[in-house]
Amino acid sequence: MARALHSRGGTANPELSQLQLDPRPRKSTRPRRLEHLTRDTGYRWADEVDPICSELTRLITESRLTFKSIVERVNSTEPLSQNRITPQTLSKWMAGETKSPQNRKIDSVLKALGYRRIIQ
Fold first, then answer.
1. Coil vs helix vs strand at 5
2. Cβ distance 40 to 83 under 8 Å?
3. Of 4, 12, 33, 112, which alpha carbon lies 20 to 30 A from 120's?
4. Spatial CA neighbour of 73 closest among 24, 105, 109, 106
């Protein structure tokens, strides 16, 4: 067992060495709040992917437009830079790499393809 030394006299202090070498974590004195464990965390998709993704890929495929032409349509009609998209965004949507696309980008692409989403 290692011994801690006083800085002045060089004698060992067994209490100090016990405090320094005790690997056990300290216990918190306040109670743990676990109310959040029963809270609903929202809807989870059955196959871990938002259902709008499959609808988007179907509409993009049926349009027979290239990613570049869709991107040009979106970026020419969208004044805000947050709503603009890139060909890589469409590529990831089509490949299934995106689990939950941003709502504003979905609406921008639908608008460029001539569709409008109606929420019921």
1. strand
2. no
3. 112
4. 109
* pLDDT 10s digits, 48-105: 778 888 889 999 999 999 999 999 999 888 777 777 899 999 999 999 888 888 888 9
Q: What predicted TM-score, i.e. pTM, was given to this entire model?
A: 0.59
DSSP tally for the chain: helices H, then strands E: 5, 0
Report how far Cα 104 is from the mean position of its chain's Cα atoms.
17
- Tell me the residue length of the chain: 120
CA distance 61 to 94: 9
Sequence ranges of the domains in the chain: 51-113
Nearest 10 degrees: CA dihedral of 12, 17, 19, 24?
-170
